[in-house]
Amino acid sequence: MNLQMVLNPLARVLLIVGAALVVPLLWSLYLEDGMALIFLLTIAIFVATGLILLYFFPFRHQNQAIKPAEGYLIVTCSWIVVVLLGSLPFIFANVMDFGDAFFETMSGFTTTGASVLAEVEKLAPSLLIWRALTQWLGGMGIVVLFIALMVRFGSGLNRIFTAEAPGTTVEKLTPRLTDTAKSLWQIYLFFTLAQVLLLMVAGMTFFDALAHTFTSIATGGFSTKNAGIAFFADNLAVQLILILFMFFGGTNFALFYFYYKQKTLKVFWQSEEFKLYLKVIAIATLVVCAGLYFSGREVEGFLPVTALFQVVSVVTTTGYATVDYDLWPNLARNALFVLLFLGGSMGSTAGGIKMLRLLILLKVGLAEIFRFRHPTIVRTIKVNNERIDDRLVIHTFAFFFVYLLLVGLGTIVMSALGLDFESALSSVLACLGVIGPGFGTVGPAQNYAHLPLAGKYCLSLLMLLGRLEIFTILVLFYRKP
Question: What does DSSP assign to residue 290?
């Protein structure tokens, strides 16, 4: 293991996040909310740590290849160190102890949206902007941002890119990986600017529009209000805008790139994953609407929009809630519970198992049924008219197995810490799937503050595993027999 190849990129990531901290610093200076010195100190720690690492571990060999294990370690260390240092503003401001600050910041950078805060509005505005900004940075990926800005690592960048977006996640859009990363961030920035403007037109203040844009296009779910996004439940325009951009956040960003290049919507209709994504949302919305309508129970807001909002929020792993769906009748409530297992598209800011993996599992299952009926006929598994490699099928089944194994183990741990079965299971699903709110004592009207410290650390680990899609971290513990 070459420490120079690991710590030098880590140092550069710290400098990038340190630069991002200028945003809440300027906000604090403008509003004079008393947090400026805290953000200056945090920036100094980020920058000093980065510069010290650069000094002791300079990058001397351009285009030196980064080994797979080094790529995985770079990404894992980057996320852990950024979360540790990113929690400092909450600690310095004396609004959280270390355990809560670590949990909140991990939830932010992994775009989970699980929170320990009951009184969000008590935080200084600049702290709320930093809290939202962590999700925006984590949405597209701080390491992908690093790749977009760095060219000196040459072919080694591919190892880092693959580590943060492993398996079937992201395809190269351009011949050069740095150009691919830049293209992804350009799309991300375009959606960010567009959503801020639309939310302001719909009636939000610039502060709320910026914070909720950071957390919706990133499918994160943090809010600036104690009531969460339910504060805007009476504003239909705001809800529709959030639905649209949560949907965009859960869509493979490569499709937007190809649409921009080809100027045709066919790129979306030709994607089987995108069509499955649409079908899941449509079917789940209809089921939720039926469950609410036939229950005879009064529903807050316009029923189709209320149902669609919660469905899109859960499928895209955003975690917003305009109503307490934990109180809904069983059919509607359980439909949302099932969605905790799914997730958005590959190459999106969403978490979960992802639609492409579900599509592959469905196709393999149907192929096996066909094989039993016609044992002499060989049926090829295809997605988008392209044959799926056997290695990809194996990876998909392995991911699904390990995902369910982690759900089971996590549920046992959380149950041992005192949670009832529903709360334990949904908290694990919500954190491993980077969704945020679950059901029971961690439902949309609750928070995670009541959990014991061990439970918060356990769920923080699951958030990181879910964000980095499990194998990036597990491979670091693999040793040849």
Answer: H
**126, 24 in Cβ contact below 8 A?**
yes
DSSP summary character for residue 118 = S
Q: Report DSSP letters for 170-226, one per residue.
A: ---SSSSHHHHHHHHHHHHHHHHHHHHHHHHHTT--HHHHHHHHHHHTTT----SST
Q: 151 and 4 in one domain?
A: yes
Angle at which helix 177-201 crosses helix 253-262, to 10 degrees, equals: 90
Backbone φ, ψ for residue 387 (5° rounding) = -65, 135
C-beta separation of 268 from 255 below 8 A: yes
Residue 433 in tokens: 């799937």
Token pair 């006929």 is found at: 377
241 and 124 in a common domain: no
Whether residues 185 and 253 share a domain: the answer is yes
> Among residues 76, 89, 82, which one has the least CA distance to residue 160?
76
Q: Which domain holds residue 296?
A: 175-403
Neighbours of 362 (CB within 10 A): 11
**Spatial distance between the Cα atoms of 378 and 57, rounded to a whole number of angstroms:** 54
Residue partners of 70: CB distance under 8 A and separation at least 6: 1, 2, 5, 6, 159
Residues of the chain with pLDDT under 70: 1-2, 59-65, 142-178, 479-481
State the total domains in the chain: 2
Give the gyration radius of the chain's Cα atoms: 22
Widest pairwise Cα distance in the chain: 75
Q: How far apart are CA 459 and CA 418, in angstroms?
A: 14
pLDDT the model gives residue 417: 93
Residue 1 has a pLDDT of 61
**Two structure tokens written together for 158:** 């591919």
Name, in order, each residue with C-beta under 8 angstroms of 6's C-beta and a sequence gap of 6 or more. 70, 73, 74, 77
pLDDT, tens digit, for every residue of 105-122? 999 999 998 999 988 999
In degrees, rounded to 5, the angle at the alpha carbon of residue 95 between the alpha carbons of residues 32 and 430 is 115
In a domain, 445, yes or no: no
Q: Rounded to a whole number, what is the distance in angstroms from the first to the last CA of the chain?
A: 18
SS3 label, residue 313: helix
